[in-house]
Amino acid sequence: MQLTPLHIKGGRALGGEITVQHSKNAALPVIVASLLSREPVTLHGIPRLSDVYTILDLMAHLGTQHKWMGDNSLELYTPEIINTDAPYALVSKMRASFIVMGAILARSGQATVSMPGGCAWGPRPVDQHVKAFRALGVTMTEDGGNFDARREGSLNGRFTFELLTVGGTHNAILAAALGDGVVVLENASIDTDVVDMVEFLNSLGADITGAGTNTITVRGVSALRGGSYTVIPDRIEAGTFMMLAAASRTRLRVRNVRPDQLRAVTAKLQEMGVQITEDGNTLVVDATRETVGAELKPVNVTTQSYPGFPTDLQPQMSALLATVPGTSVVQDPVYPDRLTHVAELHRMGANITVSGYTQVIQGAKLHSAPVKAADLRAGAALFIAALTTEGETIIDGVQYLNRGYERLAERLRGIGASVQQPDLALAMD
Ligand SMILES: CC(=O)N[C@H]1[C@@H](OP(=O)(O)OP(=O)(O)OC[C@H]2O[C@@H](n3ccc(=O)[nH]c3=O)[C@H](O)[C@@H]2O)O[C@H](CO)[C@@H](O)[C@@H]1O
Ligand SMILES: C=C(OP(=O)(O)O)C(=O)O
């Protein structure tokens, strides 16, 4: 969908409080995991995002009926899987949808899912998902851009991931959760989004232990019951707003956060001189000149899987550091090509030199310019940068922001920003 660009007038004093949505990247696997139950499931804390609508379209094809119960609660009911395929038109919109393979396989014994392909910043391989399935007894074939997965009986055995993969861990857990086998996953992701999906599945009667450690054991059960579950707050959105506070040298109360899930981000901002205090599930982020002094300090940042500094906050951190005097170095080995924000930040006066996955950033005063987001977090980097400038920045590519930030324009206006974009109200259903 082509949306009208976002118009941001920077330079206004921001402040006050902003409430973080619940997590996109935890909600999507929890929604998919509901496929494992034949009974109704009610989920709370589901952000109204285009990615959520995309996964619901895909699940409607598979046989899920859904009903919104108020703004952020969703009832899902999949009495039968009516199709066992996930076609390209739906999977290509969102790579995260590849994890439906595990869920369809668990319920139906066979699944055909289109290969997810690349994205704006480069390849997003699924070789570990495929290796895990094969090691656990699934027959995998590849034909015409599709993967076909078939199992005789239940998944069984042990698989050691060659690298930490969030989606690969989700997929293998989903595939093994029903039946009478026992699956042990080693070098599994300890990401918050894996833990959230496992807690949800266990609340429906699954038998999964070790989530949050590198060894996860999944004992199949014959069926899952219905139930209700609330998804965790969005740590990536929280981090985005923390970086916005720092870049605009303001004080923000960022509400609905899990401070324990943001330690790497908090530590890096504190190293820059930002004062961060915890108040229950609120973080008070103070980067005002009275508190911090004239300038923030440059830092070096390297992304890692959780609990390290997240790749999903790398573009936003780069935008922040582009405003901080001195030399900072940002490296993203998790997604070495995740650099679509750089050329756009150059248009706003940023001084960033790229070599491989390393950005060397010399702080500068940014100015407004017409820019274009080519992916979600690049869009976030651009709105952070725009809010630090004096003029009006027009950001195109708003459909990417709609993937990850609910009612963004309205919430930014709530902290004093001048943001115009009717399409970001997301009046979808
Ligand atoms: C919807 C969702 O939750 N997306 C998040 C999820 O994506 P996603 O689950 O796709 O990311 P992974 O954790 O799988 O990827 C981590 C690394 O492993 C590599 N890899 C992954 C799978 C595989 O089979 N082979 C392989 O080589 C990837 O290229 C990447 O370098 O985690 C990423 C890393 O935290 C985040 O940036 C995404 O926002
Ligand atoms: C990259 C992201 O999502 P996805 O994995 O769905 O592309 C993200 O949330 O920043």
Low-confidence stretches: none
Please state the second-level CATH architecture of the largest domain: Alpha-beta prism
Assign the CATH class of the largest domain: Alpha Beta
Strand order of the largest sheet: 22-23-1-24
If helices are DSSP runs of H or I spanning 4 or more residues, what is the number of helices?
Answer: 15
- Rounded to the nearest angstrom, the distance between the terminal CA atoms is 15 Å
Count of DSSP strands:
24
**CATH superfamily membership of the largest domain:** Enolpyruvate transferase domain
List bound small molecules. uridine-diphosphate-N-acetylglucosamine, phosphoenolpyruvate
The CATH topology of the largest domain is UDP-n-acetylglucosamine1-carboxyvinyl-transferase, Chain
Please summarize the sheet with the most strands: 4 strands, mixed
- Pairing-aware structural class of the strands and helices? alpha/beta
From the spread of the alpha carbons, the general shape counts as: elongated
Helix content: 25-40%
Output the radius of gyration.
22 Å
Averaging pLDDT over every residue, what do you get?
95
Query: Beta-sheet strand percentage?
Result: 15-25%
| The number of domains | 2
Function: Cell wall formation. Adds enolpyruvyl to UDP-N-acetylglucosamine.
InterPro entries: Enolpyruvate_Tfrase_dom, Enolpyruvate_Tfrase_sf, MurA_subfamily, RNA3'P_cycl/enolpyr_Trfase_a/b, UDP_GlcNAc_COvinyl_MurA
Active site: 119 (proton donor)
Domain Enolpyruvate transferase: 9-412
